[in-house]
Amino acid sequence: MKLLVRNLDRSTSEKEMLELFQAFGEVQSCDLVMDKSSGESKGFGFVEMPAAGDAKKAMKALNNKKIGANNIRVKKAEEKAPNQT
C-alpha cells in the first residue's frame, strides 16, 4: 500500500521518515519529494509498505502526530489516473 505523507518539517530527512514507518513493518520504498532547483524538501513524500495491515497501522498511529515542528498527515496515496487522449 502506498501512503502519502504531508506537512513534513522541511528538515525531516528521508532516513528519519523511513525509520518512522519501519516501526510498523517492512517498508518497500520511501521517497521524500525534493525541490529540483533548491534541493530542499517540499514537505511531503511517499512510503510504500507491502503489507496493507502494516500500512494501515502506520497510517492510524502517525496521522496528525507531531514530528519535528509539524503535525504530519498520513493517508492512502491516490493512484494516478491514466492519461486520456
Structural features, described:
This protein is of the alpha+beta class. The protein has a single domain, classed as 2-Layer Sandwich (Alpha-Beta Plaits), CATH 3.30.70. It has two helices and six strands, in the order E-H-E-E-H-E-E-E. The strands form two sheets. A four-stranded antiparallel beta sheet has the order 2-3-1-6, covered by helices on one side. A two-stranded antiparallel ribbon has the order 4-5. A hairpin with a 6-residue loop joins strand 2 and strand 3. The longest helix is centred in the C-terminal third of the chain and has 11 residues. It is globular and about 35 Å long.
CATH homologous superfamily title: RRM (RNA recognition motif) domain
CATH domain topology = Alpha-Beta Plaits
Instruction: Let me know the largest β-sheet.
Output: 4 strands, antiparallel
- Unreliable segments of 5+ consecutive residues: none
- Rg over C-alpha atoms, rounded to the nearest angstrom: 13 Å
List the topology elements.
Layout: E1 2-6, H1 14-22, E2 29-34, E3 41-48, H2 52-62, E4 66-67, E5 70-71, E6 73-76
Antiparallel strand pairs: 1-3, 1-6, 2-3, 4-5
Write a concise synopsis of the structure shown.
The chain has 85 residues and is an alpha+beta fold. The chain has helices at residues 14-22, 52-62; strands at residues 2-6, 29-34, 41-48, 66-67, 70-71, 73-76.
Task: Give the key terms.
Alpha-Beta Plaits; four-stranded antiparallel β-sheet; alpha+beta; 24% helix; single chain; two-stranded antiparallel ribbon; 85 residues
